[in-house]
Amino acid sequence: MSGDQIWELLAFLAAVVIFIPIFYRLKVNPLLAFIVAGIVLGPHMLGLIKDTHVTENIGELGLLFLMFTIGLDLSFHRFKAMRLYIFGFGLVQLLVTAVVLGGAAFLMHKTLNEAIIIGLGLAMSSTAIALRLMQERGEMHTGAGRATVGILLMQDLAVIPIMVLLPRMAQTDTTAIGNLGQAFTQAVGAVTLIMVIGRMVVKPLFRIVVSTKNSEAFTAVTFFTFLATAWATNVAGLSISLGAFLAGMLIAETDFGHEVEAEIASFSGMLLGIFFLSVGMMIDIHYAWTHIIQILLLTVGVMVVKFFVLYVIERRMKVSHSGATTSSVFLCQAGEFGFVVFNLAAQNFHLMSVQTSSMLQVVIALSMSLTPFISSFVLKLLDKKQAAEDAAKNEAVPDEIEEEKEMENHVLLIGYGRVGQAAARMLARNEVPFLVMDTDVPHIERAKKNNRDYLFGNAGNVRILEAANISKAKAVMICISGLPSAIRVLQAVREVSSTIPVFIRCNDDTRWGELVRLGATGVISETQECGIRLAAATVLSLDGDEDRIRETAAVLRQENTLNASLPTAGAGV
Fold it and tell me: pLDDT tens across 248-301, in order?
C-alpha cells in the first residue's frame, strides 16, 4: 500500500469520526454522514481522495451487502404473516407513487425509460429512518406501524423486478412497458427459484455446517451462498446485486438468519458506508449549488406527493386519521435504494445523465435529512389534537388482517440441553412465556419438536439479544454448561440492560463472586443442589423430621442462589 493510499484512508476515517457524531446528535441517519464525507473528500470539493475507482469498487461490495441484508429481512413466513398489508397497502402505494412521480418526470420532458426509473427510485422510502422513528414512538404494533412495515416490505420485494429491469432497458430495443412485463416475469421466476433451492439445498447445507460448531465454517458457508447466488444470477444475465438479494432471502428461510446478520454486521456496515462515501464523491456539489432552487422544489414536491398518496391510500383502507398521518410522515422521504437505482442507471447502464442522477441523489439525501425534523413537528401537533382520544380507537384496522406478533413480557431461556429443557417445563407449567435460544442444531430441533418458541443464535452477541426483543423481556435464564460461554452471555445481557434479572447456572462454586460482580441476580450451583437433594433423601430414609429438612433445604438454597430466594412452601424438597 502506497503512502498516498494510506493518506486517503486516514482522510476517510477522519471524516467519518468527525461527521458521524454530529449527525448522531442531530438525530439524522448516520449513513448521510458518509455521503457528506464523500462530498467533502471527493474531487468536487477538497479532492483528498483521488483514486475514486478503488473507492467505487469497494463501494460496490458494500452495495452487495446492502442487498444481502435487505434479503435477510424478507422470509416467506413474514410475507405470509403480513400478506394483506404487503399486497394491500404496499403494492398500491408503490404503483400509485411511481406513476405520479414518473408521470411528473415525463411531463418535464424526460424519456419514458427515465421517467419509469425516476418514479420507481423515488417511490421507495428509507427503511432505516422509518423503522427508527416507529420504534422511538412505540408504533410497531399499532395500525400505523403495521401499515408502514407492510409498505416497506413491498418496497423491498420490488427490488427484484427493478434490478432485472435496469439491464434490460440498457441492452434491448424493446419498449419500457415490454421491459416491465419481462422484468415481472423474471422476478416471478427468481422467487420460484428461491423457494425450490431454499428447501432443497441451503437449509440442509447450513444444518450440516452448523452441527460442526465451527464459526469459520459458518462464515464460509454464508459467503459461499452469497457469492454462489450472485454468480448464478450473473450467468443468467441478471444483476449480481439481485443475486446478493436472493442469497439473503435464501438464508432468511433457514433458522440461522439472525446469526448470519449478526456475523456480518460489523464489516458490512463499514463496506456499506464506503458505498455511500462513493455516492457522495460522485455528487457534483457545484452543480447542485447552482441548481439549489430546483433541488429544494423537487425535494418538497417529492415529500408532499408521497405524503398525500400514502395518506389517501391508508384512509381508503380504514386506517384512522391519526394512524394514516403517522405512517405517511414516516414514509414521505425517498430511500437508500434510490441511491442504488440512480447510481446504476447513470454509471453502469447509461440510462440517464450523470447530472440528473447527481441531482436526484441530492434530493434523496435532503429528504432523508429533513424527515426526523418534519415528523417530530407534525407528530407533536397530532399528539396534542389526539390527546383526549383512546389510542385503540385511533388504530382501527381491518380485523381480518393477520399481524406478525412480537414476543414481550417473556423469559429468555439460553441453552436447551437437559437443564434448559427442565427449566422450560417449569416455565410452561406456570404459564410463563419464554423464548429458547441456542446455537446447537439438535437442541433447536428438540425445541421445535416440543413446540417451543425458539431463535438460533449466539446470545453472547448483543444483536442476537436485540433480535430476541430483550428490551421487553422480564428475565434471562442462562442454562448453558460452559462457564466461559455463560459469562460472555451475562456480559452481553448487562451491556443491553443493567436491570433485567439474570439467573445463571454455575458448575464451579469458586466463581460465584465473579458472577455476582458481573451482574448475575442469582447463581444456581448445580453441585450443591444435587448435594441438598441427596442429603434430604438420605435423612428422610432415616426417619428425619420432614419440616426441619425442608427448612434446612430452604436456607441452603437461599445461600446457594445468593441474591435470589426460591419458593419452598408446599413444594417438598
Answer: 888 887 778 777 877 777 666 676 677 677 767 767 777 778 888 998 999 999
Q: Is the pLDDT of residue 135 over 70?
A: no
Q: Exposed e or buried b for every residue in 449-462, given b needs 16+ CB within 10 A?
A: eeebebbbbbbbbb
Interatomic CA distance for residues 73 and 545, integer angstroms: 60
C-beta atoms surrounding 60 within 10 Å: 18
CA angle 2, 6, 10 (to 5 degrees): 170
Residue 410 pLDDT exceeds 80:
yes
- Whose CA is closest to 153, among 181, 135, 130? 130
Angle at the Cα of 192 from the Cα atoms of 186 and 194, rounded to 5 degrees: 105
CA–CA distance, 147 with 150 (Å, rounded to integer): 5
* Residue 397 near residue 326 (C-beta atoms within 8 A): no
For residue 252, give the C-alpha cell: 432468511
pTM of the predicted structure, to 2 decimals: 0.61
- Average pLDDT score, the chain: 77
**Alpha helices of 42-90 — where are they, by DSSP H?**
52-72, 76-81, 83-84
Here the contacts of 207-213 (C-beta below 8 Å, separation 24 or greater) are 207/441, 210/256, 210/439, 210/441, 210/456, 211/441, 211/442, 213/439, 213/440
What is the pLDDT averaged over residues 162-185? 65
